Amino acid sequence: MKTLEWNTLFGEGARRIQASTIRELLKLTQRPGVLSFAGGLPAPELFPKEEAAHKAAAILKEKGEVALQYGPTEGYFPLRAWIADWLGVSPEEVLITTGSQQALDLLGKVFLDEESPVLLEAPSYMGAIQAFRAYGPRFLTVPAGEKGPDLDALEEVLKRERPRFLYLIPSFQNPSGGLIPLKARERLLEMIMEGGLVVVEDDAYRELYFGDGRLPSLFELSREAGYPGVVYLSSFSKILSPGLRVAFAVAHLEAILKLTQAKQGVDLHTPVLNQMLVHALVQEDFPERLERIRATYRAKAKAMLEALDREMPEGVRYTRPQGGMFVWMELPQGLSAEALFREAIAQDVAFVPGGPFFAGGGGENTLRLSYATLGPEGIAEGVRRLAKALKGLLALA
Amino acid sequence: MKTLEWNTLFGEGARRIQASTIRELLKLTQRPGVLSFAGGLPAPELFPKEEAAHKAAAILKEKGEVALQYGPTEGYFPLRAWIADWLGVSPEEVLITTGSQQALDLLGKVFLDEESPVLLEAPSYMGAIQAFRAYGPRFLTVPAGEKGPDLDALEEVLKRERPRFLYLIPSFQNPSGGLIPLKARERLLEMIMEGGLVVVEDDAYRELYFGDGRLPSLFELSREAGYPGVVYLSSFSKILSPGLRVAFAVAHLEAILKLTQAKQGVDLHTPVLNQMLVHALVQEDFPERLERIRATYRAKAKAMLEALDREMPEGVRYTRPQGGMFVWMELPQGLSAEALFREAIAQDVAFVPGGPFFAGGGGENTLRLSYATLGPEGIAEGVRRLAKALKGLLALA
């Protein structure tokens, strides 16, 4: 076979697209016997297998000509209308996307050029960093913790810079689990309105609260305030199934139109069967389903926190999530989460080192633990193994 | 509501993303009563509704934890392995994409920068032009007809230019229906190998031949010649269902790796259920299904050609397709296909004006007729209406 130097054939842009070293590491977590806190994989016991089987069969038999044919780029209208009704917007403001990951890519395509400033929390969702990075922007970051981004730091950045958009996950942030309190949401919105800025609010975990209810989203607050600059993203991945890849963006009509034009060029439309299936599944017992999901994750979070409180050595800090799927951990300064990862894998337990969640670097002593996938016993045993790995590493240090 | 000037908030890149005027026109074709030759919508009577209902239910019941969970970016391994076996390649060389449209976007992302030269046939697939245009390349074109691209013209272009890739649809081209003969494929491959160039071969219509069999693809010829530079695209859209959005790219491992990295950032993975469903559907009677599909389109093409031969006035030229879904028509010079479109819509018949298929402009007197969707009687009646519209326009001219 003749040899081609593919790297010389790719464009400049291809250099920005790299295999995440972290994703390579994560392949190790699929080894049999490994208890994994790594992937943010929803609890498989919550998947609506039987209902989906029944509904999918009915859809294909009765409306197969629609489910199997090309569909509109905007999405399957009854699903858009259902979402609009759920969120209190109009169906025309809803665009169905092939997972929220696609919405992130479309936002990059529409808003970002090379060297465009874009503002993220540090840490922020790795998949967003990856999607945006392909467009070559300049990342601005502000530190974020249990109460969301540092708003004083954000105010300082906004004095100097005008980011194309702010990408924020106000509720149960991935990876930090942070939740922006209501007052801070209001202050944030004021800053955004004053600057006439665009915010992308990623609300994938909106329904996974452990307390009495949801805080209003930035999007809801912005609508109340008559401000059209918040693009709202959410998904059925955490409440029905991630494998179906059905998510949605909600925004001002002009933004939705441009995102729709961009989507036409990237996959024509999200699979019709999947949209019809989601639409059928949300018709029945949806509030009860959400309650069941919240109860499950609440119990799993409790199991993890109890195990961490029992097992973790001094000097290790971790969050106590009020919702979502993640505990965020800080090791004592100087200790490397990647080094711990190698020790942990030897003990058959896995997590995600925190470094790649920082678009501007740093975070080497941080890590993300997902309690979403394993059962309570697996969680307890995994934390035991993790503590053992950590104590081994501390003994060496 | 406060007003934002969205056009000033979007990036430079967003200007390259436009609503195709043609797609706006096409909305008119969905009016009740319109007989449409416009969309390349596969014949709905060929959809495997019952089998899909049965298989989808079985998959969701028995393997719901896999079908509904996140999956690998590369694709569902059993489907990759099946495709590899079908095409005589290795599974690692196969990437599952969310429709071929996604493969086109990924190729743009990986190979094209602003002002990169990229070579297309004129006319070529509108969706490819749209996908590539988002990356701001410089389009080079060579005229193409019933026997594919003009290879002398191509040779001339390649003396002056080094395109990042050549995008070709060698078999039953969309929109022209063209088929590159074997000798020309061999000459083309020689030119490509001599230049060390990359070819993207879009073979969406590979199975829709009306004669005795398929010509070898450029990809197959390149493998025989030991040349790794052909990226092969095909899809289950025309042989099972477009609505499922399951397609694939096959290429040298280094190209597949880079495309996979790019795909991770754009939708994480193609829906798992859809891949499992396609895998289940190709296990049974697949050769018989392909025969049935070929027979159906062969009959539809015949119905359209008989009607055209009967109804069309002098001076109108059209192709006699040997496969695929399209007849390509040239009106007498000076006659506008868009003007005809307006007349035709008034007569309740629709088609796609050819202009947008020409990346470099031109083709105003051309149009595409799809015989895929309607039955023989609808085709005959549609052609009658089209002839009436055309005669009306000629009477005015």
TrEMBL record, chains A, B:
TM region(s), chain numbering: none
Protein family membership: Belongs to the class-I pyridoxal-phosphate-dependent aminotransferase family.
Native species: Thermus thermamylovorans
Aminotransferase class I/classII large domain: residues covered: 56-386
One Pfam family it belongs to: Aminotran_1_2
Alphabetical UniProt keywords: Aminotransferase, Pyridoxal phosphate, Transferase
CDD domains: AAT_like
GO biological process: alpha-amino acid metabolic process
Protein name, as recorded: PLP-dependent aminotransferase family protein
Matches recorded under InterPro entries: Aminotransferase_I/II_large (IPR004839), Class-I_PLP-dep_aminotransf (IPR050859), PyrdxlP-dep_Trfase (IPR015424), PyrdxlP-dep_Trfase_major (IPR015421), PyrdxlP-dep_Trfase_small (IPR015422)
Lineage of source species: Bacteria, Thermotogati, Deinococcota, Deinococci, Thermales
Cofactor(s) required for function per UniProt: pyridoxal 5'-phosphate
Transferase listed as a keyword: yes
